[in-house]
Design a protein that fits this description.
Bound molecules: zinc ion
CATH topology: TIM Barrel
CATH class: Alpha Beta
Number of strands: 9
Order of helices and strands: HEEHEHEHEEEHEHEH
CATH architecture: Alpha-Beta Barrel
Strand content: 15-25%
Structural class: alpha/beta
Length: 249
Amino acid sequence: MSQQHFEYHLDDFTESGYREIIRSARSNYRFESYGTESDEPHVLWRHDVDFSPHRAARLAEIEADEGVRATYFVLLHSEFYNWLEADVTGRFRQIADLGHDLGLHFDASFYAPYAEQAALAEALDFERSLLERIFGRDVRAFSFHNPDVGDALQFDADEIAGMVNAYGRGTKERYAYCSDSNGYWRFHRLSEFLESGHVFAQVLTHPEWWTPSAMMPRDRVQRAIDGRAAATAAGYDELLARIGRHNAR
Ligand SMILES: [Zn+2]
């Protein structure tokens, strides 16, 4: 369908739309962690944090408010945020303190192509240990970043490097799947997916697609970029003012 005639359901992607979706999910499912062995109807609710830890922290608050838990997958190679920047690390700590799990969002393209799973496992293990040392929490699951790019999806073992693979064969077979893709519903609208009677579901959202008010998808990305740029500039100005230096322009 052409872009002009596509239905974007922009109101779905707001904070109030998100809260409604969480309530609907909660009435149908228990929220479980990756690796669960539960036979009760449940959902694995996951966020791949590609662009915005700040949006992630906001969604984490809404979820905690509604009494559910999710897993937040941290990307170590984002072009949009630095996970070791104090403010960003603080957001992820805050998310974990709200009772959510932290996972590893793994960018396989950062490393050489993998002929063998052992090399992949070594890189995964390395990044997991970084996350665990900084956050002081167990990291029990990973998801591939940009899984359609490169050869990552050929590694579909259910567990690699002691972590549950969100794209593992077993998870794929057991769980119906819905994702917010690029800020719109490519296949199913999430609200309808949650009402369609799947016993086990995996839901993937990317926090930057969920904003206080309705915006077109590309504008939501720009919002994350501009917010970060403005905060960086303000931080620089504040520092110079604090130490009494000239800030000529
Ligand atoms: Zn990603």
